[in-house]
Design a protein that fits this description.
The protein is an alpha+beta fold. The protein has helices spanning 10-14, 19-24, 30-39, 44-51, 68-83, 98-101, 133-145, 155-173, 179-198, and strands spanning 58-63, 88-93, 114-118, 124-129. A 4-stranded mixed β-sheet has the order 2-1-3-4, with helices on one face. Helix 3 packs across helix 5 and helix 7 (133-145) packs antiparallel against helix 8. The radius of gyration is 17 Å and the shape is globular. The relative contact order is 0.15.
Length: 199
């Protein structure tokens, strides 16, 4: 089966930002992401699993500073990569790296964050895109009651609906026990378990 050639190698990967560098360049959105990074801890069991993962060398993340899903989920991904022995994370801005971005479309869309796991020879192990499935379902339900019912021709009401939508989605991520983050961790875990077991 022919696979799409992903334009990433050691030289290109090394030009990506470390997690620390990525957060440092965020500007007015940095505080939100840092807060999520401080909250996005792994459970002892999750740390044990990711601490035992072998075969992941490079982890590429596509992001943009303005994206809510990036603020909410990239810190958790950073924590996962930190727990995998020998794994390196580099962050690339989506719109400045469209040749990479367009290898990882989500039903035709340039969704972010995109997280791609590679082995030491740049073979793709697997990818995780945007947010956990339960989070997508929650966001769709909230959207149906906020953005979708706001009059399209009324910018003020659209803006208010967007603010309401964001606040409600953020509240779901702040639920005690962080069920939406636990779901994201479970999806990444299943991805790695399934793909690495086949190698």
């Amino acid at each position: 089966m022919a696979t799409l050639q992903i334009p990433v190698d050691n030289a290109r990967f090394s030009k990506g930002m470390t997690w620390k560098d990525y957060m440092a360049q965020m500007g007015d959105t940095q505080k939100r992401t840092e807060e999520n990074y401080n909250r996005a801890t792994l459970t002892d069991e999750e740390k044990k699993f990711f601490g035992g993962v072998k075969g992941v060398k490079y982890v590429l993340m596509l992001a943009e500073n303005w994206c809510g899903d990036v603020h909410r989920n990239s810190p958790l991904i950073a924590r996962i990569v930190e727990a995998i022995p020998g794994a390196e994370l580099r962050v690339f801005l989506r719109d400045q790296n469209l040749d990479i971005t367009d290898c990882f479309l989500n039903n035709g869309y340039r969704s972010i964050p995109v997280v791609v796991f590679f082995d030491a020879n740049w073979n793709e192990i697997g990818r995780w895109i945007e947010r956990a499935h339960p989070a997508t379902n929650k966001a769709a339900l909230i959207r149906s009651k906020t953005l979708d019912v706001a009059p399209k021709e009324d910018k003020a009401k659209q803006d208010a609906a967007m603010n309401d939508f964001r606040a409600q989605v953020n509240a779901e991520y702040a639920v005690p026990g962080a069920p939406l983050w636990r779901a994201a961790v479970a999806e990444v875990r299943t991805l790695l378990e399934t793909k690495l077991a086949k190698k």
